[in-house]
Amino acid sequence: MRYAFSVIKQYMRKNFLQPATVCGVITLTLFCVSLYAQAPPKPPKPPASRPEAKKSWPKPQDWLAGAEKRLEALNGITSPDSENADFKKLLERATELIGQAKASSGNQFQHGRRLLAAGAMMDAADRVLLAQKADRNSDENDMRRAGFVLQGCYFRIRQADYFADISGDKKSGMSAKLLASSLYQQGRSAYDAKEYGKARLLGEASTSVVFALECMAQAAAPNPHIYK
Q: Where are the domains of the chain?
């Protein structure tokens, strides 16, 4: 680019103010400017140093400690809403699953799946608790969200039978499946009553219970192919 401009300057000195020269200079200048404008931008400079990555992933004992701490907090709730029968059932099931996770600490896959199941039961307990005090003043957007959640929940309930059968404890699995179905039906009733916030939360609780069943079924697999 600098060379092109130096050539233009020398040419103008020799042929200054001649009409053909002026037109040629203008044309050449515009051509150079267009080439410069079309040139790709320079890439940004890389940062001086990369942020340090975490040195290690959380260990299984950290997962267990976190689950126990969360369960303790939920059991410590003393509001009238905590007297809900479904809330109590979900916490009882979470307690059982944490105990099973402790017993299977030698198998990291089973340990992790059972802790995930316990976490899902506690997620459901959270939703049930929130549903008791959900705002009844709902709008059309709340109706759409609740309908979307309940629609997905309907199909997840259909999968619960399969997960209950292969969960390793059919009695416990069936109990969880019935609880998921009950929460779904409560959500449908709330939807019909136009309590869309409550309907959405109960649908999410039901879906979390089915996910817990799925994790229980994975933990009961005879030869998990990921790791032991």
A: 2-38, 60-219
